[in-house]
Amino acid sequence: MKTFLTTLLLLAAGSTISLAQCDKKVSLTSSKTQHLDEKGQLKHADDEKVVVEFNKTDISVSINNDGGERKLTGKVNSDTCNWKVPFKEGSSKLHVTLQNDNGESRDYTITVTGKDGKVTFMATSPDEPDEVIKLDIEKFEEKS
Hints:
By secondary structure, this protein is mainly beta. It has a single domain (2-143), classed as Porin, CATH 2.40.160. It contains 1 helix and 9 strands, in the order αβββββββββ. It has an 8-stranded antiparallel β-barrel with strand order 1-2-3-4-5-6-7-8. The protein is globular.
């Protein structure tokens, strides 16, 4: 009985930690953007600093490369969050609408996955089904 109660308490504590992370604003940083086709094959890669910040309602993407800085901002339409170990094991899936500086907007499905301590970011849009954007995240942190 003690083992059962201990296991139950550990699961409850883990769920609380996971949910606590899901309610936080997070920041993801990458230095390379990979553009993949629908089969996951690399089309091309860009060396650029990308910072993605999001919470349950808002998202912003800053892209800084030789051409200057671009910023996309938008709303999180829905999200699913399931992190077993914050920032290391689990995933978040966001359905977002992003708008560029020219006022053009596009819907994306964004998946942030942590596996074996490595975090990756994937974005797809129904407007470009043959284009998958992948970022290997170098820094994943909570923001205040």
